[in-house]
Amino acid sequence: MGAAAPRRVAIIGAGMVGLSVAWFLQEYGVEVTIWDRKGVAAGSSWGNAGWVSPGLTTPLPEASVLRYGLKSLLRSDAPLYVPPTLDLSLARFLVKFARRCNEREWKRAMNAYVPLNNIALDAYDALNLAEETLEITSAPIVAAFQWREQAKDLLKEIEMINRAGQPVKSEMLSGAELRESLPQLATTVNFGIRIDGQRYIDPGAFTTRLGAAVIGRGATLVTPNEVDSVRREKSAVNVYGSDGASSSFDAVVLAVGAWMNRLGGPLGVKMPVAAGRGYSFLVPSAETVAFPIYFPAVRVACTPMGPKSLRIAGTMEFRKPDYRLDTARLASLMRSALPLLDGLDWGQRRDDWVGARPVSADGMPLIGASKVPGIFIAGGHGMWGITLGPATGKLLADQIVKGEIPDQLRPFDPTR
Ligand SMILES: Cc1cc2nc3c(=O)[nH]c(=O)nc-3n(C[C@H](O)[C@H](O)[C@H](O)COP(=O)(O)OP(=O)(O)OC[C@H]3O[C@@H](n4cnc5c(N)ncnc54)[C@H](O)[C@@H]3O)c2cc1C
Question: Is 331 left (phi over 0), alpha (psi -120 to 50) or beta?
Answer without folding.
Answer: alpha
